[in-house]
Design goal:
single chain, alpha+beta, seven-stranded mixed sheet, three-stranded antiparallel sheet, 18 helices
Length: 593
């Protein structure tokens, strides 16, 4: 490696060329006192090693611990980072909520991981004691012991997230902060030194993200937490990420290509995630989460692994999912039962879910069969055609117990620990109240728009559902969401009942007029008194400032005007030379008729 750092660096050894092995031999000779070590001997050793070798580096070029003059310094949590110009390395303050949520989630996951390991050790001790009491041979060997967690951030940019992991997570043993851009890796090393984080704890690595994760798919090299937060789609990294995470570990995935996941580009959505999104659907952001979960689950299933979502959120301009990855061939058999298609009417709001597979028989060893069709070819409300979307993850997106654990910690921690604490509480509170077994939802304002009725106050709509004996919740993706186990027929009967109380001029030629022309089979009760919510928090907070959204992609170091002119002249000379060579080739080799 041309660059050196103060302690341990990473050398990516490529075993595809003779020269790479010879260079490795030249490194090993002086460092280990092996004298004239043979190329053949080094080749035999290196081919048996993983592609990543930890090599003792020189301490002559230690990164500066103070920012250079004119650099912008940003503080977030307990970390401070600096960069020379905005285009050098990507940083977006909007993602602070993302990073705060990640730290909170990893803290809760670490507690669970620690308890699981201690429980395994206690079981082994009890088993050994039982065998000793019966005078049977007692197995030897070390007991499971929790010694901290390791984290791999595949796309680290400035290294802010990795530095916060090192400083704010007490049980972190090591963080590998990887980025493909040389400027980003240099920024990670400088910012680590600026924050007093040792290179043994935070290792900066330059490499292609997927290749680095593939290099860690062996069980002894896997990480407890793998975090992928790209600029755009995470689809190129999902397959490698599910292999780099340890059994029972945590996988954190972010996608910012919401135009694709929400159906504006169906072809791109299918090619990236293996699913079709419904354009202009009111539940598009929840469907985006479920499409991403389908992609992660499908990738994990190829390696006899299954996923357990802790919670998945759609905020601002991105989706963020936290899932545990487990090894179990038996659970992988059930993967198809957790997927469904959606049949969305092209004219009204009616939709129906079609499971992909079903499980019957013994729950421990079920029989998996294909599901029979449950939907007609035409909408049963307005008679128009259906549009098909999916397949997508139709199992729960959130673990209620884990969400409550995170909320308990948030309510007890000081306000200074998370700058976005108020929003974290609001989002997680809404998630904890969502119906876990009801995928997708109706939107109240859209129902009123379809039928051209006056708006129904949300409190009275809730009364109608509860009076009829149905469950109802909101969604963290939409404050107007009606997530319910009520059948579609009741939802439209509620709209007909409201239209009778608040008459409108219905045009029978429109879809809404046809729906209201049918009398309700069940008259909705809008006057039921409901108790006040047990928890009164702000669930849907406004953006903190204007233009709150994504930023432009980092373009690397800015070139000076002189450097730009030199590059332009060299490019022009190259084009002239290429044109002259092409003309010479045509003149010497005329095209045959």
């Amino acid at each position: 490696s041309d660059e050196t750092q103060s302690t341990w660096g990473i050398v990516n050894v490529r075993l595809c060329r003779h020269q790479a092995l010879e260079n490795t031999a030249s490194v090993f000779r002086p460092r280990f006192g092996l004298g004239a070590i043979s190329f053949k001997f080094v080749s035999s050793i290196v081919r048996k090693l993983p592609y990543r070798l930890a090599v003792r580096m020189s301490s002559s070029d230690t990164p500066a611990a103070t920012p250079p003059p004119g650099a912008a310094v940003i503080q977030e949590g307990q970390a401070k980072v600096y960069y020379k110009n905005e285009n050098e390395v990507f940083y977006n303050p909007v993602q602070q909520f993302n990073r705060d949520l990640s730290i909170l989630t990893i803290k809760m996951f670490t507690e669970i991981r620690k308890a699981e390991i201690e429980e395994k050790a206690a079981k082994k001790i009890a088993n050994r004691q039982a065998l000793a009491a019966e005078n049977k041979p007692v197995p030897s060997g070390p007991l499971p012991q929790f010694d901290g967690i390791t984290i791999l951030e595949a796309l680290a940019a400035t290294g802010l997230r990795s530095i916060r992991y090192c400083k704010e997570l007490p049980d972190v043993k090591r963080v590998l902060a990887n980025d493909y851009d040389e400027a980003a890796v240099s920024s990670i090393r400088s910012n680590a030194a600026y924050n007093g984080v040792s290179h043994e704890k935070l290792v900066a690595n330059q490499g292609e993200a997927a290749a680095v994760m593939y290099a860690h798919k062996a069980p002894e090299l896997q990480y407890d937490v793998v975090d992928i937060d790209p600029y755009g789609s995470a689809s190129p990294f999902i397959d490698s990420a599910v292999q780099a995470v340890r059994n029972g570990g945590l996988l954190c995935v972010t996608c910012t290509d919401m135009a694709v996941l929400c159906g504006n580009h169906m072809d791109a959505c299918f090619s990236k995630y293996g699913s079709v999104a419904i354009k202009n659907s009111k539940y598009c952001h929840e469907l985006a989460l479920r499409i991403l979960m389908h992609a992660v689950s499908t990738s994990a299933s190829r390696y006899r692994r299954y996923i357990e979502p802790l919670y998945c959120v759609s905020v601002d301009f991105y989706v963020r999912c936290f899932v545990r990855v487990h090894d179990s061939a038996a659970e992988v058999k059930k993967a198809g039962t957790k997927l469904s298609y959606v049949h969305q009417c092209v004219a009204c709001d009616t939709f129906h879910l079609q499971p992909l597979m079903k499980a019957t028989g013994d729950p421990k060893n079920p029989k998996i069969t294909g599901a029979s069709a449950e939907v007609d070819s035409k909408c049963d409300v307005c008679g128009r055609a259906y549009q098909i979307g999916g397949p997508f993850w139709s199992d729960p997106l959130h673990n209620v117990d884990f969400t409550q654990k995170a909320l308990t910690y948030l309510n007890a921690c000081p306000d200074e620990e998370f700058q976005t604490k108020k929003r974290l509480i609001g989002v997680l509170t809404t998630i904890s109240e969502e119906l876990p077994d009801r995928p997708l939802f109706y939107q109240l304002s859209s129902l009123c728009s379809t039928t051209k009725t006056t708006s129904i106050p949300l409190k009275q709509a809730r009364s109608a559902f509860h009076a009829a004996g149905y469950r109802l919740s909101h969604s963290h993706t939409d404050p107007q969401a009606l997530k319910t186990d009520a059948p579609t027929s009741f939802i439209w009967d509620m709209m007909r009942s409201w239209a009778q109380l608040h008459p409108v001029k219905a045009n029978p030629a429109t879809i809404g007029g046809r729906i209201l022309a049918t009398p309700p089979s069940v008259v909705a009760n809008f006057d039921l008194e409901l108790p006040e919510p047990a928890v009164r928090v702000a669930r849907y907070l406004p953006n903190p400032e204007p233009n709150w959204g994504p930023k432009a992609r980092a373009t690397g170091k800015k070139r000076s005007a002189e450097e730009a002119n030199v590059a332009a002249n060299e490019n022009a000379e190259k084009q002239v030379k290429t044109a002259a060579e092409t003309e010479m080739e045509i003149s010497t080799n005329p095209v045959k008729e």
